[in-house]
Amino acid sequence: MRKPEKSRSPSNWPSSLPYLRSPIYSPSLTQAHLTAIRTPSEALPSFPSSLLAGPHTNVRITPITDPAHPAYKQAGLFATRDLAPGELAVPYLGEYHPSATTDLTSDYDLWLDKSADVAVDAARMGNEARFVNDYRGVPGRDGKRQNAEFKEVWWAGKDGKGEKGMAVFVLPAGKRAVGRAKTVGIAKGEEILVSYGKGFWDQRRDEEAGMEAGQL
């Protein structure tokens, strides 16, 4: 397993977690897994791997102090400048691993390549993207959905090689977007919010129901 690099971490980064500037590989990954994630796909948007290295100055980890926020006393990710519709906001870094080694309690695990059985988990190490919250219940978002999304990408190296990865993107402007909404997807100071998906919340409710049942 490649060890995390010792590198400068962003403000409000937890001292107990390694800050990553590139992905880490689980020793459980086989050569078949590695070949799959290192095989180029024209379907994926391509970006230079140099963008992986942080800290990333266009986002900021910020403690949540509003008691009405679902992540109260935790943290969220906020834009430090206006982010354009469709823009790559920040790479999502963590440990690449096969699903057989999935930590079922992790809230930071995303499929990287489901057909190849490879996921990326930022529970124990990662970068700023691990602080992206779900939009549900966030104050001030009545009638609004997320303003960002997770998307697979291709990180292209200088040597012509590369690998699949995950990143957080600003949602594209809708067909009905007018005025400022055409050029600004997430405004400076606004929280970057995604949808964790129905499956995530269904599992969370099942876990909470099981805990309550165990306390009866």
TrEMBL record:
Give the matching InterPro entries.
SET_dom, SET_dom_sf
Q: Where is the SET domain?
A: 55-197
Domain of life of the native organism? Eukaryota
**What name goes with this protein?**
SET domain-containing protein
Recorded source organism is Coniochaeta pulveracea
Q: What is the lineage of its organism?
A: Eukaryota, Fungi, Dikarya, Ascomycota, Pezizomycotina
